[in-house]
């Protein structure tokens, strides 16, 4: 299995190379050269299996020679051992034909743990073989940072550096990044929003001298291995509800388009997904793009669902690659246009996208009302991101079961949840002490050279 760049001008890599590399050297994102499929029989055989077994069967066709089968099974077992629910991704019923996929039972209470815990194991195994030392730099709108820190803290041959937008993450999110005491963990508060953090991260990857000097590795959802890990729960949820004999749809609270793109891969692998519904908050570039064909960022407005406060959705580039029939030059062209303000999606590509994706946008008031109503109607306390998903899903209910992804635990966003319901969600016991431990954080300006200087100094310890 070879991996190729969405912009068509970087060398093809193996699975482990693509995982360790992150961004391709032509600025593109890696994708498998062909998407393996599972037969109807193979898909129906997944129903009722332990989560870890489904992980193995779904990701194995993508990993090539990187890991022996028994080794891979062992790494998968370790990745999910720290989850607080034996089902890992339990499915809860909200209404006759509407279900909630709870993805917040991992160690940092957001769906990011599903991928980060797994790539933490896979990267460690790859580094143990090569003897290399790497610097992981990640940009976060809140949840990727804590999940990466949790997965990599204390490791010998890894430094983990997280750029988060100063003042734009919840207090729980910030403390999850600033309170770990392991010396290989470095939280940097950057002046700007998430798009700023992600742009500086991409600049670092495109500075090849720096990239090679510090042996830069990326764990944002630009990393293919992360997307792959997220494909799995689409299979567990759909087969639990009758796939492949029955079609299902998914509604996904979306920011960087990583989670929903994993659903697209599941669909291409043969899972009968009717519609993937993109749910956005007031930062609705994806909803606008799918509605009008114009992809044009217009500035982030902070919301009560901060992990989705994004206007430049990296993984949308992967969807565009398929919508443009694998034409890397066409993708490179629109990405070039994006630098000067935005681009128009071609009619053919737009139709291809609309074949799979629907979309909706939810205001702040509707988000709060959805949290309140769901608690009253079902007893389920939603985080604001999950509420955005539920609200959009309700506008897209059809004859097939609708599954909304619940992307974070309400206790990560206690202020917004309390404001909506009067009820303050409690942190689970394993996170006691979060508010009393000392914080370690470095404030850095929105400046590539300044960030690189801090990183050089930190990894020289
Ligand atoms: C990261 C995140 C999202 C957005 O996921 P993408 O893969 O970036 O689209 C939604 N909700 C929560 C809670 C998140 O942490």
Question: What does the model show?
Answer:
The chain is of the alpha/beta class and 461 residues long. The chain has a domain at 91-107 and 224-421: Rossmann fold. The chain is 44% helix and 15% strand. The chain contains 19 helices and 15 strands. The chain has helices at 15-21, 40-44, 51-59, 69-80, 112-130, 143-152, 171-178, 194-206, 208-214, 224-240, 258-268, 285-292, 316-323, 328-339, 347-356, 364-378, 384-394, 414-421, 448-459; strands spanning 3-5, 30-32, 91-95, 98-102, 134-139, 158-165, 185-190, 216-218, 248-253, 273-280, 294-295, 343-344, 357-361, 402-406, 442-444. It has a 6-stranded mixed sheet, with helices on both faces. Strands 8-5-6-7-15 form a 5-stranded parallel sheet, sandwiched between helices. Strand 3 and strand 4 form a beta hairpin. Helix 5 (112-130) packs parallel to helix 6 (143-152) and helix 16 (364-378) packs across helix 18. The protein starts with a strand and ends with a helix. Bound molecules: pyridoxal-5'-phosphate.
Summarize this entry quickly.
The chain has 461 residues and is of the alpha/beta class. Helices cover 44% and strands 15% of the residues.
Q: What amount of the residues lies in strands?
A: 15-25%
Overall radius of gyration: 20 Å
What is the CA–CA distance across the termini?
Answer: 38 Å
Q: On the 0-100 scale, what is the average pLDDT?
A: 96
Overall helicity: 40-55%
Structural class: alpha/beta
Question: Within the CATH hierarchy, at the fold level, what is the topology of the domain at 91-107 and 224-421?
Answer: Rossmann fold
CATH class descriptor of the domain at 91-107 and 224-421: Alpha Beta
Number of helices: 19
> What small molecules does the structure contain?
pyridoxal-5'-phosphate
Oligomeric state of the chains in view: single chain
Low-pLDDT sequence parts: none
- Total DSSP E strands: 15
Biggest sheet character:
6 strands, mixed
Provide the spatial order of strands within the biggest beta sheet.
Answer: 3-4-14-9-10-13
**Mind telling me which CATH architecture of the domain at 91-107 and 224-421 this is?**
3-Layer(aba) Sandwich
Shape estimate: globular
